[in-house]
Request: fold
Amino acid sequence: MPPVMALPAGARSFEELFARRPAILAPMEDVSDDVYRALCRTVGAELCVTEFVNVEGLLRGCRKARHKITLLPSDRPTAIQIYGADPERLAEAATVAERAEPAYIDINCGCWVPKIARRGAGAGWLRDPDAMVAMAKMVVERVSLPVTVKTRIGYGPESHMPIVELARRLEDAGVRALTVHCRTAKMGHSGAADWSWAGRARAVVSMPVVVNGDVNSAADAARALAETGCSGVMVGRRAIDHPWIFREIRALLDHGVELPEPTVEERLDLCRALLRARVDERGETRGVTCSRRHLGGFIKGLAGASALRRELFDCPTLAGCLEILDRAALRIAA
Reply:
């Protein structure tokens, strides 16, 4: 087994990160940025992963890539995820990311989007498992932080699933944990995730394995962990609309309690918090616009939600959106 590497001063040990079977905020482009990570932490997210960081942009000093790896003291524990097609560039980028003192470095070997995978990055690595293992070993040897991999069960077709043998080989290469999105790359987001593959991978390694795919509720998380024996669950698309899933998962796992749906006040307060934070970071026009993908989910289930959604989506200003939310609060309370 590889030696235990040091984490930044004051951080939890790598093993402690997985001791409570965490519900982890998945890396999602234009979603899991610093603002949204902070928001998810207020409703129970314990461990987060950054957006995908392109290694070429990072090594060129691209402002956007540099911003993605900037972690505030309050933004911990957070892992930095990098992606690219060139092993040497990935290893070099990992050394840059390491200076930001993340909880660990995660390598994206699971992004199925054709423009990424066709270039050999993301899930493109699954077309050549030997190269993928050699790349991971190179990254591991270049940094002192733990290195993890997020991948899919195979590239496709479904008859060829290399994940079990790949898990063994990645652990032998020094990878410290594996997140398995339980679909093939060719499936994208279609079809049902087959969690059993994460369980099969977990059975052949001693490192933590995290199950990912179709974890849409606390009950899903509990069932995925029970069926696979994995060390944690990763939540992606459901966290976009319903970040309260993190506290719901913790309550069910730790206390066997099914929490009620968030209240009207909680939903509207989270809308306000997101809008203000996004505008502070990105300016009014862009901040309001990029908040819309979340607002519809936050207010789902409220009386008059469809009309409220239309109003918010038509409003270009922070003050206007806040006024709409205040009127909605009064109307619903009446």
Remarks:
- Strands lie at 23-25, 47-54, 78-83, 105-109, 147-154, 177-184, 209-212, 232-235.
- The mean pLDDT is 94.
- The CA atoms of residues 183 and 193 lie 5 Å apart.
- Residues 14-255 form a domain with the TIM Barrel fold (CATH 3.20.20.70).
